[in-house]
Amino acid sequence: MATQNFKITAFSTALFSTWIFVEELGLLFDAGDGLSAGLMQKARKVKQVFLTHPDRDHLAGLLQFCQLNNRANLPHFYYPKDCKSFEYMQAFMARFDKHTAVSPWTGIEDGQAIRVKPNTTVQAIRNEHIPVPLGVHKSLSYLVQQHKRKLKPAFQSLNGQEIAGLAKEKGQDFISEQHSEKLIGISGDCPVRQFEHWDNTKLLIHEATFLEEQPGLNNKQNKHSTLTDVLQMASEINIEALLLKHFSSRYSAAQIKTAIRKQCRALKLEIPVYAILPGEIKRDACNSEPIN
After folding, report:
1. Which range of residues forms the domain containing residue 238?
2. Alpha carbon distance 241, 243 (integer Å)
3. Span 43-72, average pLDDT
4. What are the beta bridge partners of residue 21?
């Protein structure tokens, strides 16, 4: 699936609200304030919701979203399993809007893959936004993957009849093997770490809260990325496109665009780089004009 085939609607401004909707897959990542007003009727297309962490700018839109859209077994909500905030939120909503109690909520952990379509999974990846001991899960990134079976090289010269005969005699596992393709990576809020998670991903959606490292900007308990670090990573791995989000509102749109263009030139980064600028709802984000 090409990057341009993803119709992504999103809002992401650090401290205030973040939500990202991938329409073709029915996937929503995070549920910040203004989610329902931003998606309106399209919110009914959401089948699964993956929540990255319990900061209020990533979950404050849940109350209205659930009131309007929860129905039997839909949407299914997934969250870092050790975040009690989501359990409290679910319990409150079940009492406040009783009909919302029909939607399932599931806590998940690092490495766990959730099947969202017959050939598509969303894998949870531990990140370092909330420092916790290993084995505790309070902050997650996500990787959307598509899985297909491909004929093993040894049988690629056979005709259809011969392949069908072998499959019937020895089974599909004998003649084919599973192939996984990384479609979309969603960083959540986190510093840049572990490049290999995102290598060979078609579209990487990554936070870039600060344009560059400055004293005092990134020394809080909850860690974030700089634009400099994200673009450096993008220049060292293989991705088809980069969508930047979660910029601090201290920066203007002009400042962000200028910084992206300047740093892309310095790194000779030629992939398209898109951005969700502070205060804007980005519609069909990967079919807009790249910043660079």
Report:
1. 3-287
2. 7
3. 96
4. 9, 28
